[in-house]
Amino acid sequence: MIYGFFPGCAYQAAAGYKESVDAVCGLLGIELREIEDWNCCGATAAFSRSQKEALVLTGRLFALAARQGFEEIVTVCNACYSTLKKAAKLLDGQPALLEQVNRVMAAEGLLLEHPLPVKHLLEVMLRDRSRLSWPRGECRLPEQVKVAAYYGCQLTRPWQDVPRALRPDILESLLEAAGIEAVDHSARTLCCGASHAVAYSGRCQVLIDRIINGIRAKGGNLVTTVCPLCQFNLDQGQQGRAGDKVPVTYFTQVLGLAFGLPPEKLGLKKLLVPLKRIGL
Predict the structure, then answer these.
(1) I need a labelling partner for 22 at 20 to 30 A (CA). Which of 52, 132, 182, 200 fits?
(2) In 3D, which of 133, 130, 126 has the Cα closest to residue 172?
(3) pLDDT (tens digit per residue) in 180-197
């Protein structure tokens, strides 16, 4: 199955995200076809600078995807997802804004009639599972691995449409479909500090410790997330940690392990907290 794909700026540099997405999607029969000539979506910072400029950045992505014949945009980044969802709701609800964006894009010969639906890859995998080449058989993860799902704070912001946003379980549902039992914990949507973790590392360290401690208290020894920045913050934020460290993976890395894919195909050696801490 072919999906219009917006990788976002952090995708290539993320620790094993591209490798694991490629490997798992190849197994499932998913073809992520990149939007041609895509640009940065502006992330969440663009709207704080200029709403019009932010909407031009996102509007251009919608227009390019529509011109290629895609019916929706799939992404793997919480910031990209959040930004595109917010832009879609603004452009859908305010024709005057859409007209302004189209006036700017006219210089490129682009025209946007309406924004496309935006989905995270985990939503697509769960929604289209019956049409994918979903592996049959037992989960290949060892029993000692206790997985804790971590969403971060952007996937469930008010303008999103993820079910049960205050206490989401969509990632747990996908893990369960792969035979993985997820640890129940209350840190799943706590903020890790996002980009502030660089400028205000000391203050954000408190946030990171709270998340890791919450997961450890419930027996989790492996974190899996859906966001490049969340993965980086939780992974590198444990480097000075006195207590037990917990490896932090992407959901596609955990799925790949559960499906029996070789670890070297999943980019797992790029993790700062290695999987050998839990016997993998």
Answers:
(1) 182
(2) 126
(3) 999 999 999 999 998 888
pLDDT attached to residue 93: 86
Helices and strands in the chain, H and E counts:
11, 7
Closest CA to 122 of 224, 44, 274, 267: 224
Q: Among residues 228, 251, 267, which one has the least CA distance to residue 9? A: 228
Rounded Cα–Cα distance for residues 123 and 11 (Å): 18
User: At 191, which helix (H) or strand (E)?
Assistant: none
Q: What is the pLDDT of residue 40?
A: 96
Q: Measured between alpha carbons, how far is 200 from 205 in angstroms, rounded to an integer?
A: 9
Q: Can you tell me whether residue 36 is helix, strand or coil?
A: coil
d(CA 15, CA 268): 8
What does the alpha-carbon distance between residue 230 and residue 195 come to, in Å, rounded to a whole number?
9
Taking a C-beta distance cutoff of 8 angstroms, is the pair 138, 179 a contact?
Answer: yes
Nearest to 232 by CA among 184, 187, 182, 272: 272
Show the tokens assigned to 150.
């971590």
Residue 35 — very low, low, confident or very high, per pLDDT cuts 50/70/90?
very high
DSSP 3-state assignment of 213?
A: helix
Coil, helix or strand for 248?
strand
**Per-position b or e across 205-219, b if 16+ CB within 10 A of its CB:** bebbeebbebbbeee
Amino acid identity of residue 263, one-letter, is P
Residue with tokens 């709207």: 47
CA distance 234 to 211: 8
- The beta-strand segments (E) located in 39-168 are 73-75, 118-120, 147-150
Residue pair 78/226 in contact by the 8 Å Cβ criterion: yes
Find the farthest-apart pair of alpha carbons in the chain and give their distance in angstroms, rounded.
Answer: 58
